[in-house]
Amino acid sequence: MFQNSINFAKITLVMLEYNEIKERKYINFEGEPYEVLSSHVFRKQQRKPVNATKLKNLITGRVVEYSFHQSEKAEEADLSTKKIKYLYMNKGEYWFCEENDPSQRFILSSNMIGDGIKFVKANSLVDALMFNDKIIGLKFPIKATLKVKEAAPAVRGNTAQGATKLIVLETGATITAPLFVNEGDNIEINTESGDYVRRVEL
Predict the structure, then answer these.
(1) CB-based contacts of 91: which residues, under 8 Å, 6+ apart?
(2) Structural domain for 171, as ranges
(3) Under a CB-based contact definition with an 8 Å cutoff, are residues 113 and 160 in contact?
(4) How many domains does the chain have?
(5) What's the pTM value of the predicted model, to 2 decimals?
(6) How far is it, in rounded angstroms, from Cα 117 to Cα 71?
(7) 57 in any annotated domain
(8) DSSP-derived 3-state class of residue 117
């Protein structure tokens, strides 16, 4: 796989206190990079507080649980980011290329990419997470604005508060949205949860 070392954005290393190890942080844990999926600081009776976390190994995809005690710290993972272009998905294979060199194409596994790719349009730039000059994952913006490709018309008389329907977005992703959302509308999506956020006027 061709990796271009130009245009890397270096992330400055810092030591995180036990209660700073929070969601969407990347840390070194047991010698490998992990993403913090969840964290909860609590105190058991008279004991010192701990931070119960759920961590995802960015190389293997394995998820582990670990409680950081008050005396523990974690080093932010030595990650870099660079822009790559998402081309298309074919038969479960996700194809990308270098930002400025379309001839350098490569495949990334669905396990490495995550569900956020469903909300990325073809030929869009995305941030690749780099560890030891290798791509280990993608980082998506939390919000994405997409056009509704298919949406069934609301059924007359169905005015139940909070009622929803399935819609198809321009990327092919299917989500639930309020009944008033129509084909051709532009809507904002939370790429982490896959939830409808709001209708957008462009």
Answers:
(1) none
(2) 143-200
(3) no
(4) 3
(5) 0.74
(6) 38
(7) yes
(8) helix
